[in-house]
C-alpha cells in the first residue's frame, strides 16, 4: 500500500502520517507540501494507491487541485483531509470527485476506516453529515468551470494558478524554468480553454471554485 499525503503544514503531515501508520503499519507513505510537488511526484511515475489531500494548498485555488488531479489521474482515489467542516463544502468536495472527506478535528481512529472504505470503492463521510445528494450542490458556473479546469494540462494548471497569484509571464517563466514565449503560449491556451479573454477574466472565473461557507 502506497499513500501520498499532500498538506503544507509539516506538523499536521507528521501527525497524519503517524495516525495512518497506527492503523496500517505496513503502509508506505510519501509527503508533498504543494501542488507543484504533488505533480512532480506523480509525473515521476510514482502513482500512489491513495491521496490524502488538503484543500488549502500553495499553488491551488479552492477545489481546483482536487478537480484537476481527479481529471488527470482518475484511477487514483482522493480523500480530502481539511479543517473545513461545513456541510456544503464537504458535499461540494464529493461532487468534484473526492471519495472521502475527513475533518481535521476527527478522531484519528477513523482514518483507517475511511481509507479502507475508499479502497473498497465506497465513499466515506463523517457520520454526522446529512444524507448526501449530488443535486444542486454545485452551481452551473462551478460545474462548467470544473469541466474546463479538467481540460488543462498539468503545466497549464500550474501557470493558471500562478496567474491567479498575480505573477507576470516573466516571473512564471523564471519559476518554472522555461522561456517567456512558452508561458505566453500556455496563457493563450488557458484563455481559450476557460473561454476568457484576459487575466482578469481568468481570475474571476476560477473564483467559482473558491471555498466559502455558502448555505443551502
UniProtKB/TrEMBL annotation:
The modification 4-aspartylphosphate is found at residue 54. The keyword Transferase does not apply. GO terms for biological process: phosphorelay signal transduction system; regulation of DNA-templated transcription. Residues 145-210 form the HTH luxR-type domain. It comes from the Bacteria. InterPro entries: CheY-like_superfamily, EvgA-like, NreC/VraR/RcsB-like_REC, Sig_transdc_resp-reg_C-effctor, Sig_transdc_resp-reg_receiver, Tscrpt_reg_LuxR_C, WH-like_DNA-bd_sf. Residues 2-119 form the Response regulatory domain. PROSITE patterns: HTH_LUXR_1, HTH_LUXR_2, RESPONSE_REGULATORY. Pfam families: GerE, Response_reg. Keywords: DNA-binding, Phosphoprotein. One of its GO terms (molecular function) is DNA binding. This is Two component transcriptional regulator, LuxR family. It comes from Acinetobacter apis.
Amino acid at each position: 500500500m502506497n499513500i501520498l499525503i499532500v498538506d503544507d503544514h509539516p506538523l499536521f503531515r507528521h501527525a497524519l502520517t503517524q495516525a495512518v501508520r497506527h492503523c496500517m503499519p505496513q503502509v508506505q507513505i510519501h509527503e508533498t507540501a504543494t501542488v507543484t510537488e504533488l505533480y512532480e511526484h506523480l509525473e515521476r511515475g510514482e502513482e500512489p494507491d491513495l491521496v490524502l489531500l488538503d484543500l488549502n494548498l500553495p499553488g491551488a485555488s479552492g477545489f481546483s487541485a482536487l478537480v484537476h488531479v481527479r481529471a488527470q489521474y482518475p484511477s487514483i482515489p482522493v480523500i480530502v483531509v481539511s479543517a473545513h467542516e461545513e456541510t456544503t463544502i464537504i458535499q461540494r468536495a464529493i461532487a468534484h470527485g473526492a471519495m472521502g472527506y475527513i475533518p481535521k478535528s476527527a478522531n484519528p481512529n477513523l482514518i483507517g476506516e475511511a481509507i479502507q472504505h475508499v479502497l473498497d470503492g465506497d465513499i466515506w463521510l463523517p457520520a454526522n453529515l446529512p444524507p448526501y445528494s449530488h443535486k444542486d450542490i454545485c452551481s452551473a458556473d462551478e460545474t462548467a468551470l470544473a469541466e474546463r479546469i479538467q481540460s488543462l494540462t498539468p503545466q497549464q494548471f500550474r501557470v493558471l494558478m500562478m496567474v491567479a497569484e498575480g505573477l507576470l509571464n516573466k516571473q512564471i517563466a523564471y519559476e518554472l524554468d522555461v522561456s517567456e514565449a512558452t508561458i505566453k503560449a500556455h496563457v493563450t491556451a488557458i484563455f481559450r480553454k476557460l473561454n476568457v479573454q484576459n487575466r482578469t477574466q481568468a481570475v474571476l472565473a476560477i473564483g467559482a471554485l473558491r471555498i466559502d461557507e455558502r448555505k443551502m
